[in-house]
From TrEMBL:
Alphabetic keyword roster: Oxidoreductase, Thiamine biosynthesis
Source species of the chain: Paludisphaera borealis
One GO term describing the cellular component: cytoplasm
Name of the featured protein: Glycine oxidase
EC number: 1.4.3.19
Pathway: Cofactor biosynthesis; thiamine diphosphate biosynthesis
Keyword Oxidoreductase listed: yes
InterPro entries xrefs: FAD-dep_OxRdtase (IPR006076), FAD/NAD-bd_sf (IPR036188), Gly_oxidase_ThiO (IPR012727)
GO molecular function per UniProt: flavin adenine dinucleotide binding; glycine oxidase activity
Source lineage: Bacteria, Pseudomonadati, Planctomycetota, Planctomycetia, Isosphaerales
GO biological process: thiamine biosynthetic process; thiamine diphosphate biosynthetic process
Residue ranges of coiled coil: none
Length: 380
């Protein structure tokens, strides 16, 4: 039976990032995925990354800490991945604009800007008539526009490929088409991971199976739902670069790539594990896009697709030891923010595997926490 120090269940951005971080620490790991790696939410996502914040004196909310730490790690990881693999993951600090059409949206955006100020995130409010200085293609009739110069993006498929190549380059093993079916536990330790392709022995196990994690945790007798939240996207292509910045209007966004493509997202639907695109979502997304940037009406539609964001029982991911087990870690439920939070999540998983004190207080992210009713601070 194959034996590894760590068996990681799930090869999305979370599992791959953990594998890469562990491989950098010299830990022998295998990543098991029930299909090809990185073909689910992590492939589908838009790859928007929040701006870095300047650390301020005084206590920081652990969710803000997780987000800003990840934002700081992204340029560092991207450079290391390029160096190790030759793959450019498309990390770019393109900047972004957040916009409002109505008075109510203006109020909400001003409140968000207050939070940016407290967190030390750079932003500038653009005066009417001055939008074109930052983003010439924006509809000049918008009511309010904020410019965030440090908003960034990554190309998900390239990032996933770079992580996989770097992981295997450091001796990590990838087993695709190897669905985990259950676990064998002895006392408070899982000793074997059972798959359709045989069993794996492990000193430690990490559950990072996205929206499917809840089912695996159920198999361990632990209730921690990871409900899928369906998201649909449309990929447009112009015949010249139309936008420079990421444009965000509430939950709608335009993400310009450096090859004349613009990703328009995204819906949030409670539709179980259904992944079929719908006509209704397509119409709503393209209409919203053309209203934000009228020149897009000539753009060609290149593709549409969907992905299933892994939810949790509140707005935060689960990161930490699984209750009742000394050697099982969960890293899942990152919902809309799994790409942005992946490097810091991976570093925390390394702390847990190596038995070091986690660099962020994990009380906030444990499965057995009190559910949060607070704001979703993982948006910007
Ligand atoms: C439309 C859309 C837009 C998004 N935009 C952004 C964004 O701009 N920025 C951002 O930060 N986040 C974004 N997200 C969210 C982000 O994509 C997710 O939070 C993230 O990809 C979750 O990663 P994951 O590794 O947990 O899950 P996944 O990528 O779903 O990976 C889970 C893996 O586990 C495997 N698996 C499942 N069950 C088993 C099993 N039994 N055995 C073995 N393997 C198994 C699956 O095959 C899969 O490969 C977006 C998501 C969507 C859908």
């Amino acid at each position: 039976m194959a034996r590894y120090e760590v068996v990681i269940v799930g090869g999305g951005v979370i599992g791959l990032s953990i594998g890469y971080a562990l491989a950098r620490s010299g830990v022998s790991c295998v990543i098991l995925d029930r299909t090809e790696l990185g073909r689910e939410a992590s492939w589908a996502g838009a790859g928007m990354l929040p701006p870095q914040s300047e650390p301020r004196p005084g206590p920081i909310h652990p969710s803000v800490e997780l987000r800003s730490w990840s934002a700081r790690l992204y340029p560092e990881w991207s450079a290391a991945l390029l160096d190790e693999t030759g793959i450019d993951n498309g990390y770019r600090r393109t900047g972004g604009v957040d916009v409002a059409w109505t008075e109510a949206e203006e109020q909400a955006l001003r409140t968000t800007a207050g939070r940016w100020r407290v967190e030390g995130i750079a932003f500038e409010r653009l005066a009417a008539g001055d939008f074109g200085r930052v983003e010439p293609a924006l509809n000049p009739e918008l009511r309010l526009v904020y410019f965030l110069p440090d908003r960034a993006q990554v190309r998900n498929p390239r990032h996933l490929r770079a992580l996989a190549v770097a992981f295997t380059g450091r001796g990590g093993v990838i087993r695709a088409n190897c669905a985990v079916e259950g676990f064998i536990a002895r006392g408070d330790r899982v000793v074997e991971v059972r798959t359709e392709a045989g069993a794996f022995q492990a000193d430690q196990v990490i559950v990072a199976a996205g929206a499917w994690s809840g089912r695996l945790l159920d198999a361990l007798g632990v209730h921690a739902p990871t409900p899928p939240l369906k998201g649909q996207l449309v990929l447009l292509r112009g015949d010249r670069p139309l936008l420079r910045r990421i444009v965000e209007h509430g939950k709608t966004y335009l993400v310009p790539r450096d090859d004349d493509r613009i990703l328009v997202g995204a819906t949030e639907e409670d539709a179980g594990f259904d992944v079929l695109p719908t006509a209704d979502a397509f119409r709503a997304l393209t209409e919203a896009a053309v209203r934000l940037c009228p020149e897009l009406k000539e753009a060609r539609v290149e593709a549409t697709w969907t992905g299933l964001r892994p939810g949790s029982f509140d707005t935060r991911p689960y990161i930490g030891l699984v209750p009742g087990y000394r050697n099982v870690v969960v890293a899942s439920g990152h919902k809309r923010a799994g790409l942005q939070l992946s490097p810091a999540t991976a570093e925390l998983a390394v702390d847990l595997v190596l038995g070091r004190p986690p660099r962020i207080d994990l009380a906030h992210f444990r499965i057995d926490r009190e559910p949060s009713t607070g704001d979703d601070v993982f948006r910007s």
